[in-house]
Amino acid sequence: FGETGLHHIHTFTHFFLVFFWVASIWKCVTVSLTAYFLFLLRPPEGRRVDCVRRWKVWQHLSNYFPIKLVKTAELSPSRNYILGCHPHGIISMGAFACFSTESCGFAQAFPGVRSTLAILAGLFRLPIYRDYIMSAGMRPVSRHSLEYMLTRRGVGNAVVIIVGGAEESLACAPGINTVVMRNRKGFVRLALECGADLVPVYSFGENELYKQVVLPEGSWGRRLQALFKQIMGFAPCLFLGERWLFLPYRTPITTVVGSPISVPKLQSPTEERVDHYHTLYMEALTELFHKHKAGCGLADTHKLQII
């Protein structure tokens, strides 16, 4: 072939090898990413890692406000529970610290009971972040996921649901104690179908973490927030913090866990049964609020508004 021909063959061989190497790497990356994203489509069955819940950073987080967990009654490890946590606030910091980490001592306060915070299902479609929230013991707030925890994971499970959700976050502001649950009965029906006791929880100080611009009902801004919430599953709140406008204020948060309401297991609960236990739950939550509000820094004039 001559020197020129051999040089071209040598160059072509190098090019082919490099191309083959790049194609092999790209193929491995493509297959790995495809497998990972297909895995994201599966409902997570949980990969709880207790050491993640005990990271030292969570203790620093709780000490920043500080956040405290108050126990008012025993939770038996021979039962399953649905803990309704109120209010949502902007970021539900009390619920996160108390039930997704061990910085507030949940395992010591309720030995044998495993807390699981139910959060927005869409967060489990975010690569990497999904793996973290699963290792922290969080699960999607979906019927399939909650039924799995309450029927197929034995006993001693405490599923924490922030009942008011995104709608409640739009009504939170310092000095306001409003919870959205009068027409939210799905968690009560689930408790009856699974035979899980209901436990009211209130986080005093949660609404004081940020100053929010609460838009009036019927305004165009509130309608846009409602539309965004309907599409994305969460509401865009207009809020301000103390540092760089987004860090929360250092306000103490006291998360009080109330007494369990015994709930029977019914395969097909009637609307009357659901309404009955829903009313019992609202009464228990109201009693919990008024019993502990003075000890948590609220004046006697503060009332709990349920909408």
From TrEMBL:
Its EC number is 2.3.1.-. It is found in: Endoplasmic reticulum membrane. Its main location: endoplasmic reticulum. GO terms for molecular function: diacylglycerol O-acyltransferase activity. The chain crosses the membrane at residues 12-39. One of its GO terms (biological process) is triglyceride biosynthetic process. InterPro entries: DAGAT (IPR007130). It is a multi-pass membrane protein. Coiled coil: none annotated. Keywords: Acyltransferase, Endoplasmic reticulum, Lipid biosynthesis, Lipid metabolism, Membrane, Transferase, Transmembrane, Transmembrane helix. GO terms for cellular component: endoplasmic reticulum membrane. Belongs to the diacylglycerol acyltransferase family. This is Acyltransferase.
